[in-house]
Specification:
Distance between the termini: 27 Å
Number of strands: 6
Largest sheet: 6 strands, parallel
Strand content: 5-15%
Number of domains: 2
CATH topology of the largest domain: Rossmann fold
Number of helices: 15
Strand order of the largest sheet: 3-2-4-1-5-6
Radius of gyration: 20 Å
Length: 316
């Protein structure tokens, strides 16, 4: 089911800037928007939530004042936004940018959410409440690996590339299978949405040592900026530590520290280690997409990188 006219899609171009955390996407996106006359549409699965600012590295007030930003501070902290819902919100924001005769610049490192916006995700069928409850009981009693093996048997295509830690996606695929009687991979093909625009994706590529150095620096800056105090305030206001938005690198470890489960030094070390692991998963995800044009960022300023992308965009 198309969301826009395919005839007009060729003239309606979205620029996407993707890559791992700490690769400089935010700064490049802002510089690019200034060069080409654009607005930023965030494709970050956590910056969309209100109240979590420091640990999500949201653009500063100054940066947001320089260029319009969308899908930041949009959703209450205790709500959950699926990739499908995010995709719809992202396409609505993109249509708004087009209506103002500006160029939408999609910026983010949440690979599934980027894909949900630019490729569209299918409208999932309703899930039976009993099925959902039963699978969650089984998750606790049998574990993630058992459910992943079950998904591999029922829907090998959907299970491809998943690991036990991807239990939310495993549960989702099993919920849909047992509720509809069809594999989620089949439903995706039958009901895929087609956005009414084309996308040029540019990936931020930098040497691993430099990436890890940037991660170390950012984590230290987040701690200095008051990440622990931010977490204390969220807990004081009554937000449950287990809500989806707080199952985020940085917040999860800081909550453990505030609750007295780990030492301060361990919290910092864990945030850095888990951020490196997350960045590695991001790189792996984006490398699988042959449409991405990779841009080397080592030794270049955000403006220089933006000029390179702008040149490729105008000649595309």
């Amino acid at each position: 089911m198309a969301e826009g006219s395919s005839a007009s899609a060729g003239n309606r171009v979205v620029i996407a800037i993707v890559g791992p955390t700490c690769s400089g996407k935010t700064a490049v996106g802002i510089e690019l928007a200034k060069l080409v006359g654009g607005e930023i549409v965030s494709a970050d699965s956590r910056q969309i939530y209100r109240l979590i600012d420091i640990g999500t590295a949201k653009p500063s007030d100054k940066e947001r004042a320089a260029v319009p930003h969308h899908l930041i501070d949009t959703v209450p902290l205790d709500e959950e936004v699926s990739a499908g819902t995010f995709g719809k919100l992202g396409r609505e924001a993109i249509e708004g940018v087009f209506s103002r005769h500006q160029i939408p610049i999609l910026v983010g490192g949440s690979g599934l959410y980027v894909r949900a916006v630019i490729d569209g995700l299918f409208d999932a069928p309703d899930v039976d409440g009993g099925v959902r409850r039963e699978l969650r009981v089984r998750l606790k009693s049998e574990g993630e690996e058992a459910l992943l093996l079950e998904l591999k048997r029922l829907d090998p295509e959907a299970a491809n590339g998943l690991i036990p830690q991807n239990y939310k996606r495993i549960l989702r695929a099993l919920e849909i299978y047992y509720s509809s009687g069809k594999p989620i991979s089949q439903l995706r093909k039958e009901n895929k949405l087609t956005p009414g625009f084309r996308t040029l994706q540019f990936g931020m590529r930098l040497e691993r040592g430099e990436l890890y150095s940037r991660i170390e620096k950012r984590v230290d800056e987040m701690i200095s900026a008051g990440l622990v105090d931010e977490v204390k305030e969220l807990l004081r206001r009554g937000f449950e530590p287990g809500i989806n938005s707080l199952q985020t690198v940085g917040y999860r470890e800081a909550i453990s520290y505030v609750q007295g489960k780990i030492r301060f030094e361990d919290m910092v070390s864990l945030i850095k280690m888990n951020t490196r692991r997350y960045a590695k998963r991001q790189v792996t995800w984006f490398k699988k997409d042959p449409r991405i044009i990779w841009v080397g960022v080592d030794g270049k300023s955000p403006h220089e990188i933006a000029e390179e992308i702008a040149g490729r965009f105008t000649s595309a």
